[in-house]
């Protein structure tokens, strides 16, 4: 292993925070106030990384649009956050579970049991890339708060060798840990209030970035119309209510009409909107959507152009 990755005392995430020297003497309210003050650094860090995050959104959208996948890979807290973000995509956007995936050192069991010792095995990261058959159509984001995790470095090196696009998300500046990737996202938030506990600010800022990457990618591939989740999966009462409200609000119809439209279009909100707006039958609406890779706005534009 690179010696620079074994001596971690100089890393921003490992340093002591002078603002919390008396952490164990604070009252509950003082603790909350201190946490809130420190969390402001997360907003600043994300804002400063805006161009890199935007590039990651575009890489992710391109990967999914061309039949590839977005992968997050990490160990410990960083890996768990990647798995969480991936798991939230299918219920939110009705996306195929294969499109966004999280790879965690130690596998599913490591979500609930400490497996941080596995992060030191670069060869395991490389093996995970091979196991998931990651290739040129995929985009993989390595997540490591301190930037040094060998498992992540091994995975990214293997992914690059396989022709995949690569991203790196870390909470240390590039001059502390350098890496060759397609998009390098650095969100340094300073030392943690509890020294070295990267489930705090580092975890918060990581979740913020991952939210933006996955949500931004889904917007780019047409899962959203305006600010509505028109690819909502109608799998329970809450989501059925959401689907009916979207149809009622956008079409100006009552809930009964919205329900009939939804059922006629196979419970697809996007297809129901297109069918109503264009006046075609449900099958034609489905074909039109397929012709435009599920992009509702593009299908509407094409339909309007054809009628001119």
Describe the structure.
Strands 2-1-3-4-5 form a 5-stranded parallel sheet, with helices on both faces. The chain is 51% helix and 8% strand. The protein folds into 2 domains: 3-220, Glucose-6-phosphate isomerase like protein, domain 1 (Rossmann fold), CATH 3.40.50.10490; 237-307, Orthogonal Bundle (Helicase, Ruva Protein, domain 3). The chain has 308 residues and is an alpha/beta fold. The longest helix has 21 residues, at 28-48. It is globular and about 65 Å long.
Name the features.
Rossmann fold; 308 residues; Helicase, Ruva Protein, domain 3; globular; single chain; 12 helices; 5-stranded parallel beta sheet; disordered N terminus
Summarize the SSE layout with pairings.
Elements: H1 3-6, H2 28-48, H3 50-65, E1 70-74, H4 76-93, E2 100-104, H5 122-131, E3 139-143, H6 150-161, E4 165-170, E5 183-186, H7 201-220, H8 237-251, H9 255-264, H10 269-278, H11 282-291, H12 296-307
Parallel strand pairs: 1-2, 1-3, 3-4, 4-5
Helix pairs in contact: 2-7, 3-7, 4-7, 5-6, 8-9, 8-10, 10-11, 10-12
């Amino acid at each position: 292993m690179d010696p620079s990755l074994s001596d971690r005392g100089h890393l921003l995430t490992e340093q002591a925070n002078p603002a919390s020297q008396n952490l164990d003497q604070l009252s509950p309210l003082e603790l909350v106030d201190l946490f809130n003050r420190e969390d402001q650094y997360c907003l600043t860090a994300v804002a400063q990384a805006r161009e890199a995050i935007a590039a990651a959104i575009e890489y992710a959208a391109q990967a999914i649009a061309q039949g590839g996948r977005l992968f997050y890979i990490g160990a410990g807290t960083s890996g768990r956050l990647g798995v969480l973000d991936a798991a939230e995509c299918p219920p939110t956007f009705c996306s195929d579970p294969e499109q966004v995936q999280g790879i965690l050192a130690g596998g599913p069991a490591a979500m609930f049991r400490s497996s941080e010792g596995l992060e030191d095995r670069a060869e395991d990261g490389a093996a995970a890339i091979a196991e998931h058959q990651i290739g040129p159509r995929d985009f993989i984001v390595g997540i490591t708060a301190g930037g040094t995790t060998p498992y992540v470095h091994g995975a990214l090196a293997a992914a690059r060798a396989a022709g995949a696009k690569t991203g790196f998300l870390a909470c240390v500046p590039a001059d502390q840990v350098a890496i060759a990737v397609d998009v390098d996202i650095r969100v340094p938030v300073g030392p943690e209030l509890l020294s070295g506990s990267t489930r705090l600010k580092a975890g918060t800022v990581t979740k913020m970035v991952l939210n933006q990457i996955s949500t931004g990618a889904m917007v780019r591939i047409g899962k959203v119309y305006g600010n509505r989740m028109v690819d909502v999966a109608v799998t329970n009462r809450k989501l059925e209510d959401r689907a009916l409200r979207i149809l009622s609000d956008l079409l100006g119809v009552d809930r009964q009409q919205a329900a009939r439209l939804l059922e006629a279009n196979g419970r697809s909100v996007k297809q129901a909107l297109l069918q109503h707006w264009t006046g075609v039958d449900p099958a034609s609406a489905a074909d039109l959507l397929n012709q435009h890779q599920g992009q509702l706005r593009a299908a509407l534009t094409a339909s309007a152009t054809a009628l001119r």
